[in-house]
TrEMBL record, chain A:
PANTHER family: ATP-BINDING CASSETTE SUB-FAMILY B, ATP-BINDING CASSETTE SUB-FAMILY B MEMBER 6. The lineage of its organism: Bacteria, Pseudomonadati, Pseudomonadota, Gammaproteobacteria, Pseudomonadales. Residues 341-546 form the ABC transporter domain. Residues 23-309 form the ABC transmembrane type-1 domain. It comes from Pseudomonas neustonica. Its main location: membrane. Pfam families: ABC_tran (PF00005). It comes from the Bacteria. It is a multi-pass membrane protein. SUPFAM superfamilies: ABC transporter transmembrane region (SSF90123), P-loop containing nucleoside triphosphate hydrolases (SSF52540). The chain crosses the membrane at residues 21-38, 44-62, 140-159, 165-184, 246-267, 282-309. This is ATP-binding cassette domain-containing protein.
Length: 547, 572
């Protein structure tokens, strides 16, 4: 039950904005009805007029005001209705996308970072997947609703004119409206669902080849690898082509079905008129109505591709958010004061990594500083991640105040500066306030001073409101690192875990930042991984070796 | 993925490339156009047959009573009606198949062309953007041409041909109805141009807004880990809500404008039908103010015109709904043009090269336009030299020239033979190259090693891994040589990556090594390890090592500096 509440269902997409969707569906129905009526009434009108005109006496008694008014009304409804329907449906669709983005973000954020540790291309897909979901209401539900509504209205109309007329039209209309789209469409939907995997495979091959372009050229392996990619590209394109061909085929079948109905109606209608059971102008109106139905039924051929795509998108999104959350759970106990951190016999390794920290023992108490060093690849960063509560498989013991992390609300005591840090595309002040929403400007300047960025920020025209760009592109790597550090310092965490905080800093700045760090963290714990030699007499040192 | 709006200046180039891409497929496209046009002609015929049938029935019904209705006329017309009704969907199907086929071929052709350009550029491609960006251009931007090729291109011609043909038919029966259509017809292209421009600008704006909104969403998602650590998730949620709402409000404004072009077409289409129907109907009643008592268009003609009227605007409506395909294609080509139009240099040499021992390597007055001032250097056979210089001094250009990817003035000689006369593939066979950032493929350790030497046995792989001191580590792993490597070598440290790249070099066992800052991104301790390995493994080869630091390189025979305005030589 809970799982169902948490996952996206296509049917649920309509429910959140029922009123708006209903309005769009209603307007669209009116528009299409007006379009068909326009033709049918026009056909009836000229036929009736011709009949009246042939007997000149009747011509003067012919009431042409009402049909003329109806024709004008249909023209107006058709024009205005189309515009209003487009606006209403897009209003609803955009609202839907907005709701989805918000709820998906909340869900991913709430579940921990199993979804988030993926590559950025996977992220792009996530965003693209959300955009695919509005296909369901716009390209599946609406066309089917309109097609079914108008088919029913039209067949009903035929029936009222003459039951036999409806019967003559029925087989072809059924074929074009239900049988073909349903039968062939299911296959098309399957094809659409399958192409995501092929697309991913193709992308991986191309990116691999591009990144290794120079070695592949030097090793004369480029053309061979290129052929592998071309093969995958062909497979993907052929799959896409098959989808398109199915759509074309269904559309052709639908038109044939409607042609069948047309002939049936002409034949049966002729007989009915002959028998005096139907007037000729009405038969013409019915035939024109049937011709108008083509435009309404043809979008059904496409609908299953759209359905397949939105189903695939839904499945990927649901899979993403229903994966067992891999994160260190927060306990119930509040952690007001942190006085000890200990590791014993701790070993950990990243999935796919060749090495990691082995059998580490560690004791820290409030006020302690620890320097972690060792050659690259010995697992310093991995050890820091374990300390930061990252969801890593580890063995051994990891305790805060003598109890396991999972016992405490541990997040509020730990500040972690990873190697891969995140600067957001917001202003400097907004980035900093992520650490402490209530921070005053004065506090912001003070912490910038501490990380030796105050002069730089003062020199910017926008000062604290300087935007930092996507991925922090407007600032250098060293500045980004210090901004992230400042953000952590604002958050005032008793345990600070810093991975290479001084990378890219000259010696003088390094001293200044280090002094501020020690001052601010005087009563807390500080763990630093650094390649630079640091002047720290009272620090504990832990040297990791290659296992 | 950012889309650039084509400027007026670049639009000519875009059109040129669109033509270029489609040129080889002209016959197929013409055939598709033919099918589309025949289908339109069949529609005219079908309408004429229907009009004939109904007019015959009407006259019979009116003058002789219902029983006189001649159903056998339907039997006579049936074969022709059937022909029209069956053939039209088939022609339509054929047209779509042809266009889809052309689209597929044109796109894979373009993709091949782009890849060939990239391969010719070699390491120089990095100037064009990150590999991930190039990759997404090659995939998504090329595929973005699909709508244009498979739908828009042929439709563009039909939109002129079909209405003109219909107009001729209508004129034949009723000049006034024809004029009615003709008057609205030129208005349509006019409005299309005006609104099309507005719609294009609007859709561009919408795209920018979408990109910004997606960017914000991505930005926060990507940093979710940090947000969780900072316990700032609620702030981020508020941020997402705000951005999403902002996007929605903005887009709705834009769409109101964009949908107008559709509404205008709809308006003309509905208006034409309504006006024509009223004119014909009142005419048939004989009560038109200017033609009282006479019937300007008889029933058969009137019905024929009425049946054609909606089709008059249909091609335009279709074109209108495919308009975004055109905009999409133009935006995509604008992004691809820098790569397409790049003049790439082809290495000219064809003479074979065979080396049994380390060769000598000489640079005489080597000069690369705007990147490297004339430069002289001789490396004796088996000599190991460090080329030192700050970034921007032309080191990487020099390496690209030696690799055969960049034209140059002066000469590069291998054992007295000029590089420009040699077959590049032969030279590559003798060359080992280590780049700053070694890369790996998706796959396991053995796959990656065998990329360099497909024939190598497991024992050989183990031997080279042992030489670079990786085997002791790998031996302990459960899958050993079959250990899968994480995405982009994730999970390997920088030092381990360098060692793997060195192992690939050893597998090829070439007499010349070119090393491009092999330790630049490593910490000092690891760099020292790698440098020690390099010393040991590069013995007996001619080595040119480019670096801006000298630490750990005491073993080389000579250090040459590129920094000074005139190149000076420093002896180690």
């Amino acid at each position: 039950m809970n799982r169902k509440l948490n996952s996206i269902r296509l049917r649920g997409l309509l429910r959140s904005r029922m009123g708006e969707w209903n309005l769009a569906l209603f307007l669209g129905g009116c528009t299409l009805f007006a379009a068909i009526s326009l033709l049918a009434i026009s056909g009836w009108f000229i036929s009736a007029a011709a009949l009246a005109g042939l007997t000149t006496t009747a011509a003067y008694g012919f009431d042409y005001f009402r049909p003329a008014a109806l024709i004008r009304l249909c023209a107006i409804v058709r024009t205005g209705g189309r515009y209003a329907e487009r606006l209403a449906s897009h209003h609803a669709a955009l609202g839907l996308l907005k709701d989805l983005r918000i709820s998906l973000f909340a869900r991913v954020a709430g579940r921990g970072h199993s979804a988030v540790t993926r590559s950025s291309s996977a992220m792009h897909r996530l965003v693209a997947d959300i955009d695919l979901l509005d296909f369901f209401p716009l390209r599946v539900v609406a066309p089917w609703f309109w097609a079914s509504l108008l088919t029913a209205v039209l067949l009903g109309g035929f029936y009222l004119l003459a039951p036999l007329l409806a019967l003559a039209a029925l087989p072809g209309v059924l074929l074009a409206w239900l049988l073909l789209p349903l039968l062939a469409g299911r296959h098309a939907a399957r094809l659409a669902r399958a192409d995501v995997g092929l697309a991913e495979q193709r992308r991986i091959l191309l990116l691999d080849n591009l990144q290794m372009l120079t070695p592949l050229l030097l090793w004369q392996r480029w053309s061979a690898r290129q052929a592998v990619f071309a093969g995958e590209d062909q497979r993907f394109s052929a799959q896409r082509l098959r989808q398109q061909q199915w759509v074309s085929l269904i559309a052709a079948g639908q038109q044939l079905g409607l042609s069948l109905s047309l002939l049936g109606m002409l034949w049966q209608g002729g007989l009915l008129v002959q028998a005096g059971e139907l007037s000729l102008p009405l038969l013409l109106a019915a035939v024109l109505g049937l011709l108008g139905l083509t435009e309404v039924l043809l979008p059904l051929a496409q609908s299953f591709i759209a359905l397949g795509l939105s189903q695939a998108a839904r499945d990927r999104l649901n899979q993403l958010t229903s994966e067992p959350a891999k994160q260190t759970e927060q306990g119930a106990a509040a952690l007001t004061e942190l006085y000890s951190l200990s590791l014993s016999g701790l070993s950990a390794r990243h999935e796919g990594a060749l090495s990691g920290p082995q059998q580490v023992d560690l004791q820290l108490k409030a006020g302690d500083v620890l320097l972690l060093s060792g050659p690259s690849g010995c697992g310093k960063s991995t050890l820091l991640e374990v300390l930061a509560g990252e969801p890593l498989d580890y063995s051994g013991e990891r305790l805060l105040n003598g109890k396991a992390y999972e016992h405490w609300q541990w997040r509020s005591v730990i500040g972690y500066l990873p190697q891969q840090l995140d600067i957001f595309d917001m202003t400097l002040a907004e980035n900093l306030r992520l650490g402490q929403p209530a921070a005053t400007e004065q506090q912001l300047w003070a912490v910038l001073e501490d990380v030796a960025l105050a002069d730089w920020a003062r020199a910017r025209p926008a000062q604290l409101n300087t935007t930092l760009g996507e991925y922090g592109a407007q600032v250098s790597g060293g500045q980004a690192r210090r901004i992230a550090l400042a953000r952590l310092l604002l958050a005032q965490r008793p345990l600070l875990l810093l991975d290479e905080p001084f990378a890219g800093l000259d010696a003088a700045t390094r001293e200044q930042v280090l002094a501020a760090l020690l001052r601010r963290q005087a009563s807390g714990m500080l763990v630093i991984v650094s390649h630079q030699p640091l002047e720290l007499e009272k620090a504990q040192r832990l040297q990791l070796t290659m296992n | 993925m950012k889309k650039i709006r084509p400027t007026e200046a670049s639009r000519g180039g875009v059109q040129h490339w669109l033509r270029q891409v489609l040129a080889p497929h002209k016959p197929l496209l013409n055939a598709a156009l033919m099918l589309g046009y025949i289908s339109a002609l069949l529609l005219v015929w079908q309408s004429w047959l229907l009009a004939l049938l109904f007019s015959d029935w009407l006259v019979a019904w009116q003058q002789l009573g219902a029983a006189a209705l001649n159903v056998s006329l339907l039997r006579d017309l049936l074969p022709w009606l059937l022909l029209c009704l069956l053939l039209r969907p088939l022609l339509q199907y054929g047209r779509e198949r042809l266009c889809q086929q052309v689209s597929l071929r044109a796109r894979s052709g373009l993709r091949e062309q782009l890849l060939a350009q990239l391969a010719a550029l070699g390491p120089g491609r990095q100037a064009l953007g990150a590999d991930a960006v190039l990759g997404s251009r090659l995939l998504e931007q090329v595929d973005a041409l699909d709508g244009y090729i498979s739908r828009y291109h042929v439709q563009r011609y039909l939109v002129v041909l079909v209405p003109l043909t219909l107009l001729l038919c209508i004129f034949y029966y009723s000049p006034l109805a024809g004029i009615l259509m003709l008057v609205t017809a030129p208005l349509v292209p006019l409005f299309m141009v005006l609104l099309g421009k507005a719609a294009a600008a609007a859709s561009q704006k919408q795209f920018v807004a979408l990109a910004r909104m997606s960017g914000r969403f991505m930005d926060l998602l990507r940093g979710l880990k940090t947000l969780q650590h900072l316990q700032a998730v609620p702030q981020a949620e508020a941020e997402v809500t705000q951005a999403a709402e902002h996007y929605r409000a903005g887009t709705m404004g834009v769409l109101r404008m964009a949908f107008l072009s559709g509404a205008v077409l709809e308006f003309f289409s509905a208006l034409a039908i309504a006006l024509v129907a009223l004119y014909l109907g009142l005419g048939l009643l004989g009560i038109l103010p200017w033609a009282k008592g006479s019937i300007p268009v008889p029933y058969q003609g009137a019905l024929f015109i009425l049946l054609l009227a909606p089709e008059f605007y249909n091609p335009l409506r279709q074109l209108g709904s495919d308009y975004h395909a055109k905009a999409e294609a133009e935006a995509a080509l604008t992004e691809l043009m820098p790569l397409l139009e790049l003049q790439v240099w082809q290495h000219p040499g064809q003479q074979p090269l065979q080396l049994s021992t380390a060769p000598s390597l000489a640079f005489h007055q080597l000069d690369i336009a705007q990147r490297l001032a004339p430069f002289n250097l001789q490396l004796a056979a088996g000599e190991r030299v460090v080329l030192q210089g700050a970034s921007g001094s032309g080191k990487s250009s020099l390496l690209q020239a030696v690799l055969g990817f960049l034209p140059y003035g002066g000469e590069i000689r291998i054992n007295q033979q000029s590089l420009l006369t040699l077959r590049r593939a032969d030279w590559h066979q003798q060359l080992g190259f280590l780049s700053q950032q070694p890369q790996l493929l998706h796959g396991n350790l053995a796959d990656n090693l065998r990329l360099a030497a497909p024939e190598a046995s497991d024992a050989q792989l183990v031997a080279v891994l042992d030489q670079v001191a990786l085997w002791p580590l790998i031996r302990q792993l459960p899958l050993q040589l079959q250990t899968p490597l994480g995405e982009r070598g994730l999970g390997l440290s920088g030092g381990q990556l360098s060692r793997l790249a060195l192992a690939q070099l050893l597998l090829r066992d070439t007499p010349v090594w070119l090393l491009d800052e092999p330790t630049a991104h490593l910490d000092p301790q690891t760099a020292a390890h790698i440098n020690a390995l390099l010393e040991r493994l590069s013995q007996g080869r001619t080595v040119l090592l480019v670096s801006h630091e000298l630490g750990g390189l005491e073993w080389v025979d000579r250090v040459v500096s590129l920094d000074a305005p005139s190149v000076t030589q420093v002896t180690a």
